[in-house]
Amino acid sequence: MQLARTYGRPTLFSRHGMVAAAHPLAAQAGARILMQGGNAFDAAVATAAALNVVEPFMSGLAGFGLATVWVASEQRIRVLDFAPPMPASFPVGRYTSRFELERGPRAASTPGNLAGWCELLSRYGSKSLPDVFAPAITLARDGFALSDFGVDEINEQVPLLEPWPELHAALVRNYLPDGMPVKLGSIVAQSDLAQTLAEISESGPEYLYGGKLGRRIVDYLATLGGSLTLDDVIAVKPHWFDPLTVSYRGLELHVPAQQCGGFQFALTLKILEAFDLGRLPKDGADHLDTVYRAIRLAAGERIARGNPGPDQAAGGMSDATIARLRQRVSDGRPITGPTEQWMPQDRADPGHTTSFSIADAEGNLVCMTQSLGSPFGSGVVVPGTGVCLNNHLHWADVQPGSPNLAKPGDALPVTMAPSIATRGSRPVLALGTPGSYGIPQTQAQAYVQHIEFGLPLQQAIEAPRSRLWDGRFIQAENRIAPQTIAELKRRGHEIEILDTGWTMLCGGMQAVALDPVTGVMTGGADPRRDGYVIGL
């Protein structure tokens, strides 16, 4: 008897290790380290470095990120923050709109990813830096064949940098030696990056943070008009924090406490916990209306608090606040409000980020989200290094009069929310996604599908999702029923149906679930990206 399949990918299981990443070659790099006796922390660094090669438009060693981890030997959750603050050299008052910092040398902030990778490895890993960088170095030196997703990203994004001729030419030289456009199966080799990774593996993170690579980055930015200094680069230090923890349907959700994305995600779930969504028709108007309303209200609270620190985040989770927001969800009146920053923003999604989740046989669990900011970050590739710099400053609030006006040394608003859930003090789920200000939105939607409606992890990731924007505007994947959309519009939502059932506007989620009784690991990978799961 053949059973009907209602989802796109099979559910994958393992008992010895699991890697879920946004590209199969990156998942393979992490799995290779696990098979060589490494743990989840070793595999995370190998996966992150490989993503630098095979998703150069999404993340890299000069990007920034966060990791939420379960450390089996310590039986606790920790958060590693390697998203550096505003540089001390940032010229306050020079800019009046974040779009002045979208591209180019002025948008580049200090590189954080390499520092985070090396801290994770030195603190909890069991392998050496040359060991875990080896897969990425091989991929960069030998080259890899582009998939459909890589072809689409490069052919769409590289031409957008043509207004910056010097930056555009450097991108083409580094990634497209045969010129544009690329096609399925085109080989991308990055010999300069391979050499840079090899030198880092021999010299350690100091090669960037105060060493030769750091000086090359700063000197090159100076020739283009950038303001980053070597002191800014040397000052980069990853930090360990306790997570923000909230209860939800018998789970404890753990997210970064000091970043705004985790706060919004956690607050959304706390609002929704009062509503028995599981008894409603799945993907029906009542289900989606309730979730959309909670997401928009939580976004408003996040924006009102700027980039809440741990104390502010805890205050934003007070019983009185949550009761007020639940009442607003229930009253039925349309909700109009921002989802991005303090002032209304143009509807665009410049965020290009990647997230992966890894579990090992020792019981460790890692969820890491890292980014360059926009596609190819600032667009600045440092000659001779293969290193593409981030545009982290594009997320700084520079709008005059804003209560969240960015200043040197301030924590930048980071919407990433890598999460781990525990049940009865045992880790059960690692889940993260890219998506800029949509990250806490799409993670909440997937949680509802998995926890409230009981969908297996892969199906929960594949379920139709939506992206909310400022005002009442929503973009929805076209797998939501037309009659549901009509009813949502009647209730005040301004909905645009996208011409696709799968859009990166709604993230690219990678997750690993653990059964604490059997030890079985379940992987989930998002078809909205080149997501791939490898189990051991």
Automatic annotation (TrEMBL):
Q: Specify the taxonomic lineage.
A: Bacteria, Pseudomonadati, Pseudomonadota, Alphaproteobacteria, Hyphomicrobiales
> Which protein is depicted?
Gamma-glutamyltransferase
Q: Which PANTHER family match?
A: GAMMA-GLUTAMYLTRANSPEPTIDASE (PTHR43881:SF5), GAMMA-GLUTAMYLTRANSPEPTIDASE (AFU_ORTHOLOGUE AFUA_4G13580) (PTHR43881)
Residues of the region (Disordered) are 331-351
* Pfam families, A to Z: G_glu_transpept
Residues making up the signal peptide according to the UniProt record: none
Entry superkingdom: Bacteria
